[in-house]
Amino acid sequence: MELIQKGGLKNKIGLFFLFLSLISFSQNSPKQDFLLTAQGQTGYIISHHSSMMNLIKGHIFGVELNYVFHTDGSKPWQQIHGYPEIGISVLHMFLSNPEVLGKVEAVNPYLNFRLNKQRRKTSLNLRVGLGLAYITNPFNRITNHKNVVIGSHLNGFVNFRLNCTTPISTSWKLNYGVGLSHASNGSIKTPNLGLNMATINLGLAYIFGNKTITLKKDSIAPKKREWQTSVIGVVGMKEMEHPGGSKYFAFGLQGNFYRVLNYKNKIGGGIEFAYNEETKKIYTNDSIYNTTALDIIQSGVKISYAFTIDKLSLPIDFGVYIYKKQPTNGIFFHRIGLRYLITNHLIANVTLFTHFAKADYFEWGLGYQF
Asked: How confident is the model over 143-169, as pLDDT tens digits?
């Protein structure tokens, strides 16, 4: 409850960004023709840290309900991306050690991209989702001190799934596949090793409304290759490694450039600067002299890739520090997340800043695309 009270505004902003693209995609789409699916899941928690091994007691089990509708190509991006399905899922997951790890309740908007030809009876799909998860039993220094995985009730939730759909009648479909899910809070509240789950799923879908959808197939001109440049300012917050410690802000300024290859892909790079108050605290604890701004500022260069879906892009950055006096976290940094082009120039940014598999903090920001 403390986290929700302190971070209520931030959580609302995050939820707004997560659902913004779903609302945009839904416009002029055939919502009267939809699918409801129910799926069962089983799998295991991936032990990516030695301190987690004794917490994993067996397999995990889950139940998932989905509302799904198929795009019909009424917008160009739908045709470009092979008429993907748009869905939202509600997941209830029983973990292998509910007394310590709790349970997972997740709400997850997603896109389901078809990977094989439309004429195939069985569709092979890649599902990509980003939402929110509620962990019922996070770390508590008095009642649940053994949970070193998750330190907060509310967490970000990411899901990737390779799945197949096979019709078994005009109204019913069989769904099956394998998936990988991740839940963490970006170190807003520690501990935050993160929960990684590998699962297999099996379920049934029922079609409401029209059993078939007429797909529009317009002629779309190739995307003009061009350069895009932008500047984005971000702010984040994280807690020191010890649970219940002080929270510190981080500020960043990013300069990005991309070469647009086509409607889906762009590659590029950039330079960025950051000022992390937690770094200042660590540096002060380890030093015998007073620090200055030059001791705290970090700068780096990066190579970047972005997958684009209309006004939404999913950036991935691989960077190296070129100026960094404090040795914590090494010399490499990474980033993954969402950016949404609100207008022709204004960018909304929600990204996760990491050092390899270690999440550092969520970045919330605005930018300008030239």
From this structure: 999 999 999 999 999 999 999 999 999
Per-residue DSSP letter, 198: E
Find how far residue 353's CA is from the centre of its chain: 11
Q: Domains in the chain, please, with CATH? A: 2-208 (2.40.160.20), 227-369 (2.40.160)
Quick check: 353 and 365 in contact, CB under 8 A? no
Amino acid at residue number 160: F
Burial of 308 (0-12, 13-18, 19+ CB in 10 A): buried
Size of the chain in residues: 370
Going from the C-alpha of 331 to that of each of 179, 211, 241, 292, the distances in angstroms are 31, 54, 19, 21
Using DSSP bridges, classify how beta strands 332-341 and 195-208 pair: parallel, antiparallel or unpaired.
unpaired
List C-alpha distances in Å: 259 to 77, 115, 131, 226, 305.
19, 25, 29, 6, 9
How many C-beta atoms lie closer than 10 Å to residue 320's C-beta? 13
Q: Is the predicted pLDDT of residue 330 greater than 70, yes or no?
A: yes
99 backbone φψ class: left, alpha, beta (φ>0; ψ -120 to 50): alpha
- Of 34, 370, 10, 329, which Cα lies nearest the Cα of 207? 34
- Give pLDDT tens digits for 275-329: 988 877 776 666 655 678 888 899 999 999 999 999 999 999 999 999 998 877 8
CB 186 within 8 A of CB 152: no
Across 185-295, the runs of DSSP E, i.e. the strands, are: 195-208, 227-239, 247-260, 265-276
If one counts every other C-beta atom within 10 angstroms of the C-beta of residue 314, the result is 16
Give, in order, the Cα–Cα distances in Å from 267 to each of 53, 224, 264.
Answer: 39, 14, 11
H-only helix segments in the chain = 2-6, 8-26, 76-80, 277-286, 293-296
> Using CA atoms, how far apart are residues 41 and 297, in angstroms rounded to an integer?
45
